[in-house]
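To whoever is on call:

I kicked off a structure prediction for a single chain this morning and the downstream step that reads the tokens threw a length-mismatch warning. I double-checked the sequence; it's 287 residues and nothing unusual in it as far as I can see. Pasting both halves so you can look.
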Amino acid sequence: MQITKEEYELFKPLLFSIGYRMLGSVVEAEDIAQETFLKAYQVKEEHIRVKKAYLCKIMTNLCLDVLKSAPYRREQYVGQWNPEPLLLEKLQTFDPSETLIQKEGLSIAYLRMMEHLKADERAILLLREVFNFPYSEIASIVEKKEENCRKIFSRAKQKISSVEGESLNYEENTLIINRFIEAFQTQKIDVLLELVSEDVTLFSDGGGKVTAAIRPIVSFSNVTSLLYGIIKKAPEDFYFEVKNVNYQPAIVIYMNGKIQSILSFYISNEKIVEMYITMNPDKLPVH
């Protein structure tokens, strides 16, 4: 199949978006997108009706192959697993306004919930809910009957219903995060209690590469104690910035001149319900 430069630039963001949402990994999504194009080049043109659909089929199936080994990989992973944060300023090859990289289904909370889905549930949910593919095309991509795809989609929606209350308003969430930072720095516990759920849970991902909590940290007191402990041990050159990560405000923490961790949030009803601190250096962008 011949693919022009214009078609490559058009389809690459779409393939990356599918891969990143399915796998939660920037590197894997980029690698599999390239592999998709290579496989497509080897297919004769007469065997392809619609290039976009065919490329999506290859990409989805390659991701499904990866997901088949995911249970084993997750079992071997040390501690909590967070999706790889997508620091949008690093995506210089992609136009953030590009409609193919939609904001829906990109939050860390959403991507973590995807881990609770089976591989086919994950694929069908994304193709339908995020990319708005008709069931006829989805059926062709995953090689299942349309009616079966509808049932799988419904089942997947039920499984991730807990994230449907997530606030995705960037401006409002930024105000909450900035208030959280100010209250945290000045140790205004009363303000923190207004902003953070008493049952807040923090998921710390070190991947065995750096020190991190193996199990989720639960409750306001335990989470704030952990965060204060991290700050207390930080070097003098420690600083942080609020940046656009996965189309949501997140705290990017710098130590020793490089990104040390990224703290993302799940906000619902104007309260921080979950936090995700990713410290595994393999998942952090090079500053």
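Update from on-call: the warning came from a stale cache, not from the record. Cleared it. Sanity check on the structure: The longest strand covers residues 258-268.
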